[in-house]
Amino acid sequence: MSERIDAVEERVAHLIRTVDELSDVVARQADEIDRLTRRMAQVLDRISGPDEEGAVFTDQRPPHW
Fold first, then answer.
1. Is residue 51 within 8 Å of 60, Cβ to Cβ?
2. What dihedral do alpha carbons 37, 43, 45, 49 form, nearest 10°?
3. Who's near 57: CB < 8 A, 6+ residues apart?
4. Measured on CA atoms in the order 37, 39, 60, 58, is the torsion positive or negative?
5. CA quadruple 40, 44, 49, 52: dihedral positive or negative?
6. What is the rounded CA–CA span in Å between residue 24 and residue 15?
7. How many Å separate Cα 47 from the centre of its chain?
8. Cα 32 to chain centroid, rounded
9. What phi and psi, each to the nearest 5 degrees, are found at residue 29?
């Protein structure tokens, strides 16, 4: 009976470690998603905002047209 309990405790310890590792991965991914979301908002603001730097975007005609 003691061997079975030891085996179960060992499996639980491995599962806890795996859950902790996955939690860290999910937290890093959430941070990355937040960073990319902010960056995407900046890009969209630049594209939709006034063109102050003279950049030509694909949805705008060049000045010689």
1. yes
2. -170
3. 47, 51
4. negative
5. positive
6. 14
7. 22
8. 3
9. -65, -40
Single-letter code of the amino acid located at 46: R
Tokens at residue 12, please? 């639980």
Please state, in angstroms and rounded to a whole number, the distance separating the CA atoms of residues 53 and 47. 11
From residue 39, alpha-carbon distances to 30, 35, 64, 65 in Å are 14, 6, 32, 32
Contact in structure between 56 and 62 (CB atoms under 8 Å): yes
pTM above 0.90, yes or no: no
Q: How far does Cα 44 stand from its chain's mean position?
A: 18
Amino acid residing at 37: T
The 10s digit of each residue's pLDDT in 8-48 is: 999 999 999 999 999 999 999 999 999 999 999 999 988 88
